[in-house]
Design goal:
disordered C terminus, binds zinc ion, SET domain-containing protein
Length: 459
C-alpha cells in the first residue's frame, strides 16, 4: 500500500491544484463564450466560477446545505490532514462531484477512504456491444457465476438529485416558465463546470454517453446525467428539503440496459470510491448483462410509465407476456407480505415456529420464474427457508440456503456483506445439526411418529 508523507504531498497538492484551477477557468470561459444564452430577457448568465468556487478536496468546513463543485476521493494522510493522491489514481481516475457540504464531510469521515484501489476482475467478464434497436449494451464475455464481481468503476460524475439553482431568491419575480428555464440553464452551467474539471479522457467518455432527454428542456449535460445516473442509497442529504438522493454517472456501467428481470445488482463501495456490479444468478457467455431502471414489483403498465423517459420499450419476457407476469409478481408481493416482511428481517435469527417449507418454496419458484433474484423479496424468502430448514434439523438444506443467502447479500452489498449477520446465518448450520441430534435422542428407536418426536422436543 502506498504511503504519503505530509511535506511532499503538500507541495504536489499545491502544484496540482494551481494547474487544475487554471485549466478549468479557461475551459469554462471558452464553453460559455461559444454557447448562445437561452435565458429570458433581463436575466444574466450565472457566474458559475464565482458562485460555485473551485474547491480543493481538502476543505471541509462548509455548512450542511452549501453546494460544492469538488473532486473526490481525497485520502487521509497519516499525519491528519487530507491529501490528494488516492491509491490507484493513475488507473482509477477522479470523480467530479456536485455535492453538499454535509455529504462531503460524510465521505471524508470514511475511515478507509481512498486506501483501496478500485477492484479489478481477474479475467474480464464483460464487453460493450451494440444491440439491434437498443444501442450500446453489455454482454458476458465468459460464463459468470452468481455473486461474482463483473465490473467496478470509479464514476465520472456524482450530482445532487434536486434540479435547483443557487440564485433562486433572485428569480421570484419571473413567471413559472421563465423560472424553469433559468433553473435548467443554471444546472447545465454548474454541471458544465464539473465536466470541464474532468481530464480529457474522462470528459470524452462523458460526452459519448447516450442522451434520451432531447426534448424536455434539459441541456446536453443535464440530459446525459438524467439518462445515465444510478441512484445511490448510501449517499443521501438528510438536511434541508428532505431526503435527496444522489445520482452517479459512470462510463461503462452507465451502458447497462434495463430488464424487468435483471441478472445483476449494484452497490456503492465507499473505501474504493467505486460503483460495483455483481451477478445475481449465473450468466452464460454471450448473454446480455442487465440492470433495473425502475421499480420491479409493480405491474407492466406502471413500469412502462416509469421507463417512458428513457425512450425505449422493454422487450423482456415479463413485458412480452404481461398478463402472466403481472399475476406472478402480484402473488409474490402478497405472499411475502403474508410472512410479515419486517424492515429489519435480516437481523432476526429466531427460529420460526411454523416449519412448513412448501409455501416458501412456492414463493421462491414464482420469484425465480420472474427473474427477481435481485429483489429483497427473494433475499427474505431465502433467509426464511434457511431458518426453517435449521428449525427442522435439515443440515444439508440449511447449508444450501445459507450459501444462497450469502450470494444474495454479496451481490447486493459487496464485501460489506461479510459481517456478523452472515456469520450468524452460517451458524444456523450448527443449529440444524443440534436440532437433528436432539431429534435422534428424543425419538424412540424404530417407530417414532413425526408429531410425537416434535412434542417431546418442545417439552
Ligand atoms: Zn420488461
Amino acid at each position: 500500500m502506498a504511503t504519503t508523507t505530509g511535506t511532499s504531498s503538500a507541495v504536489k497538492t499545491d502544484d496540482f491544484w494551481t494547474t487544475y484551477t487554471d485549466r478549468v477557468k479557461e475551459n469554462v470561459n471558452k464553453r460559455f463564450a461559444e454557447t448562445p444564452s437561452a435565458l429570458p430577457e433581463g436575466v444574466e448568465d450565472l457566474d458559475v466560477m464565482n458562485t460555485m468556487q473551485v474547491l480543493t478536496p481538502f476543505k471541509l468546513d462548509h455548512s450542511d446545505n452549501q453546494m460544492l463543485c469538488t473532486t473526490l476521493p481525497m485520502r487521509h494522510s497519516s499525519n491528519g490532514p487530507l491529501s490528494q493522491d488516492p491509491v490507484g489514481l493513475a488507473t482509477d481516475g477522479l470523480t467530479e462531484c456536485y455535492i453538499s457540504g454535509y455529504l462531503k464531510r460524510m465521505i471524508a469521515s470514511t475511515p478507509d477512504l481512498g486506501e483501496y484501489p478500485v477492484p479489478r476482475v481477474e479475467v474480464k467478464a464483460h464487453r460493450l456491444t451494440t444491440f439491434p434497436g437498443k444501442g450500446l449494451g453489455m454482454v458476458a464475455e465468459r460464463d459468470i457465476r452468481a455473486g461474482e464481481l463483473i465490473l467496478a468503476e470509479r464514476p465520472l460524475l456524482i450530482v445532487h438529485g434536486l434540479i435547483a439553482t443557487p440564485r433562486q431568491a433572485q428569480l421570484d419575480h419571473l413567471t413559472k416558465t421563465d423560472n424553469d428555464q433559468v433553473i435548467m440553464h443554471d444546472v447545465e452551467s454548474i454541471f458544465a463546470l464539473s465536466v470541464e474539471r474532468m481530464n480529457p479522457e474522462r470528459k470524452k467518455a462523458f460526452e459519448n454517453l447516450a442522451n434520451s432527454h432531447l426534448h424536455d428542456g434539459s441541456g446536453p449535460i443535464l440530459g446525459r446525467v438524467r439518462t445515465n445516473s444510478f441512484a445511490v442509497p448510501e449517499m443521501i442529504d438528510p438536511s434541508g428539503m428532505g431526503q435527496i438522493n444522489y445520482g452517479v454517472v459512470c462510463d461503462e456501467l452507465s451502458r447497462l440496459n434495463h430488464s424487468c428481470s435483471p441478472n445483476t445488482t449494484h452497490y456503492w463501495d465507499m473505501p474504493s470510491f467505486s460503483m460495483q456490479l455483481r451477478a445475481v444468478r449465473d450468466i452464460e457467455k454471450g448473454q446480455e448483462i442487465t440492470t433495473q431502471y425502475c421499480e420491479l414489483g409493480v405491474p407492466f403498465v406502471v413500469r412502462q410509465k416509469m421507463l417512458a423517459s428513457y425512450n425505449f420499450s422493454c422487450g423482456c419476457e415479463s413485458c412480452l407476456y404481461p398478463k402472466t407476469s403481472d399475476s406472478r409478481r402480484f402473488k409474490c408481493a402478497n405472499a411475502v407480505a403474508r410472512h410479515g416482511y419486517p424492515k429489519d428481517w435480516s437481523r432476526d435469527f429466531e427460529l420460526p415456529k411454523v416449519t412448513a417449507v412448501k409455501p416458501l418454496l412456492e414463493i421462491r419458484d414464482l420469484l425465480l420464474q420472474e427473474g427477481l433474484e435481485c429483489s429483497s423479496m427473494y433475499g427474505f424468502i431465502v433467509f426464511l427457508l434457511m431458518k426453517t430448514y435449521a428449525a427442522r434439523g435439515d443440515v444439508a438444506k440449511t447449508r444450501e440456503y445459507a450459501g444462497k443467502y450469502n450470494v444474495w447479500r454479496l451481490a447486493g452489498f459487496g464485501k460489506a456483506a461479510n459481517d456478523d449477520e452472515l456469520d450468524k446465518a452460517f451458524g444456523l448450520v450448527e443449529t440444524a445439526e443440534m436440532v437433528q441430534k436432539m431429534r435422534g435422542r428424543l425419538q424412540p428407536k424404530g417407530k417414532a411418529g413425526k408429531g410425537k418426536g416434535k412434542e417431546k422436543a418442545e417439552a
